[in-house]
Amino acid sequence: MLMADHEMKTTAPDTGLRIRTEVKAQGVTAAPPRGGEPDIVCRNVNLSYGDNHVLHDITMDVDDRRVTALIGPSGCGKSTLLRCFNRMNDLIDDVRVWGEIKVKGLDINAPITDVIEVRRRVGMVFQKSNPFPKSIYENVVYGLRIAGINDKAILDEACERSLGGAALWDEVKDRLDESALALSGGQMQRVCIARAIAVEPEIILMDEPCSALDPIATLKIEELIFQLKEKYTIVIVTHNLQQAARVSDKTAFFWLGRLVEFGPTAEMFTAPKDKLTEDYITGRFG
Amino acid sequence: MSLRRNLARGEHLIWLTGSALGICLLMILGLLLVILTKGLGIFWPSRIEQLTLKDASVLAGEPVQRQAIPNPGQPDNLEKHRVQLKVGNRDLYGFDFKWVDESEIAKREEPAGLYLVERSEYGPLIGTPVRVVEGEKEVAAGPEAVRPRLPELVAKAARDREAVKAMEKDEIGGVNYILERIRLDRRKLDYRLKQDPSRDQSPERQALDKREQEQKARYAELEEKLGKQMEGAASTRVTFRTVDGQEKELRALDIYRAYPANELAWPGRARVYASRLWSFLADEPREANTEGGIFPAIFGTVMMVFLMSLAVVPLGVLAALYLREYAKQGPLVRTVRIAVNNLAGVPSIVFGVFGLGFFVYFVGGGIDRIFFPEALPTPTYGTGGILWASMTLALLTVPVVIVAAEEALAAVPRSMREASLAMGATKFQTILRVVLPAAAPGILTGLILAMARAAGEVAPLMLTGVVKLAPELPLDGFFPFFHLDRKFMHLGFHIYDVGFQSPNVEAAKPMVYTTTVFLLIIVVLMNITAITVRNYLREKYKTSAF
After folding, report:
1. So what's the ipTM on this one?
2. What is the rounded CA–CA span in Å between residue A202 and residue B160?
3. Is the pLDDT of residue A29 over 60?
4. Which of A169, A197, B92, B296 could join A163 via S-S bond, C-beta 3.0 to 4.6 A?
């Protein structure tokens, strides 16, 4: 059930990590039709840090292979919600989450769910690009290495495929052994995206991926998001409303830990139903 | 008003802070200058002065110092001076140094032809070579005939000593080593016999007897060979005449260096200097450490620091990892952290006492009872040795490493850990693959501090295994090569020993400074090595620019 909806997959020996048999899947070619079950289902999700109740009864669905943008003023809880999807909030003491979050039908907060498995299936790209102080190659194959794959052929293939998928292969193919930290900001962020897609996740979470980048680099990442949504479900947190309008299919607007409005981006930006949403997207506050 | 305004501006503070820094720098430079000039000056061959006193007696020696002495009754009662000469020839005179009042000197000169001879005992000899004898036959008589032969004689003596030493140390030493093993094996059999009297041990005993016979035969053979070698080498003898007419016959074998002190020009002096410096570095000490070199002490220091590093880094890093990564931060962890910090301030002799009680007597004694019962009551590990000294120092320096490692771990950016965890890495994988490599330079900084502290620490070593003179290095060619139970020499202790425990303090005083110079050099070299490694790692794991 979990894996049935995508194209044919094989299981790499001993690891449980899924490697797609089809090698060069970038671009628009091999996308199966969308539809069916939503990828992420949230029902009455609440979150508190100690006594501080941060998220209130969030209920929303994230569609398969679409881009969903989370917008709202700082501190409204959009990043916190994003980090619920791969349980990164576990790293913070005193966090309590209740309500139901299902990723591809898997209740990720259930006691028997392996958090490692969740994070392998839900990749993440951070606000500040955070490549490891290693070579470009080692950065990209990090996820495979920790899964125990050390076969050079598999790693090479994954490296080329992921860097290709992150639109970076042509720029770095001759210097894979150089430090990833020697790259430009935009390139570093794309290395991080390549690192995330190297393990073939189903969903990619992006937490303000362009906020530290210049306009040209931002444009490249946005183009990349456009390509990536052919294969991956993307949830993006952004402060840049134009960016949300450009890249997303659906937009969710948050206000003080509550989901105010959620709907197709085009509708939301042209005819918001809620007064708060209208005020925010027209720049009257925030 | 204006004074107050000036004070408030803080101009004076710049002066104050600047002067404080200046004083610190001056003191450090002064320290280096004193140690370097006193330490490195002693190898420079000085001239030999010959004094004829008013009572017609004659003295010769290297002038050491000149002092004003009180002269009561005179208008200026500091007018009188005396000079100190290093006259050598302790076997003839009974002293090395002599003070002479300048008022008693009739004539001062620096005659050519006077030699300074460094020999195997009684300190240096100052005199003129007059005769060379080989066996019973005189081969050269008179200074003019002997002088050209001396360099060759000294070089041959060095070769002979080398050959004799090689034979004594390697060949005879090897046989002795095997004989000692046989003795221990036999005691092991005795020990087993007590536990299990019914077992027949005769085959083992016969084998041991046979091996002992062989080794003893070989020993006798080597002994004879050594005797012959010694006979050949020792038959050449050189006679020197001192300035007051006494004659001293030396075996050529005992002469380490001989040079005409007043005839050497700059290049000659530089050659003597270099050769003395080299033998100081490479030779073993002679004459209760007042002559010869410090090689065993350098070796012991470096090896001890190395062993200590091997123990302290894993221990400190693991402890820091637990404190920083796994323990729940709270009052308990804070208390532990404060306790660890305070441990660094415990006087080092306390660690020495602990090392003696715990490592030497408890752990070492236990090892002896379990693994080396045949040698008891002679202890193997149950006595001070390089292993226990290193462990004690590791304990002494582990707080430094823990603190540095903790800081290094804390400085690894959170974003980097999150990146790894978000990839589905476990905490363990994240620590191993991301956190530790990124923290490695900081951890090495801790090691550098620990090494600097350990290399200079003496007090705990005196309780746990350092000795005045170790006959054997802790690393040699006999299986199992590393002899961690052996006692060792250490530069810091050597300084103390030469300076305060020496039978001939006056003669040994310059060695204190020289040994200090080399202790400093060793510490600096070890630190430079560690810093180079750290910089390499820092370059490799350079964290992001923003």
Report:
1. 0.81
2. 81
3. no
4. A169
Name which of A255, A258, A286, A283 is nearest A269 in CA terms: A283
Q: What digits encode the pLDDT tens for the residues B438-449? A: 888 888 888 888
Pick B423's closest partner by Cβ from A133, A146, A185.
A146
Whole-number Å distance between alpha carbons of B122 and B183 = 37
Q: Are strands A67-71 and A250-255 parallel, antiparallel or unpaired?
A: parallel
Cβ distance A194 to A140 under 8 Å? yes
Q: Which tokens is A91 given?
A: 């790293």
Please determine, for residue A27, whether its predicted confidence score (pLDDT) is greater than 50: no
Chain A residues close to B424, C-beta within 8 Å? 116-117, 119-120, 143, 146-147, 199
Outline where B348-458 has alpha helix (H): 348-354, 365-371, 386-410, 414-422, 427-430, 436-456
3-state SS, residue B114: coil
Q: Mind telling me how many Å the CA of B425 is from chain A's nearest CA?
A: 6
Element holding B81 (H helix, E strand): strand B80-86
pLDDT lower than 70: segments of chain B: 1, 75-78, 541-546
Length of chain B: 546
Interhelix angle for B386-410 vs B295-321, to 10°?
40
Residue length of chain A: 286
Q: Is A133's CB within 8 Å of B419's CB?
A: no
- Phi-psi domain of A44 (left: phi exceeds 0; alpha: psi -120 through 50; beta: other): left
Please answer yes or no on whether A143 and B424 come within 8 Å at the CB atom: yes
Put the strands of the sheet holding A40-49 in their side by side order.
A52-62, A40-49, A95-103, A106-107
Whole-structure pTM value:
0.80
**Amino acid letter, residue B141:** A
Q: CA of A86: which chain B residue's CA is closest?
A: B422
Question: Which 503-542 residues of chain B touch chain A by CB within 8 A?
Answer: 540-542
> Hey, what are B87's tokens?
């006259």
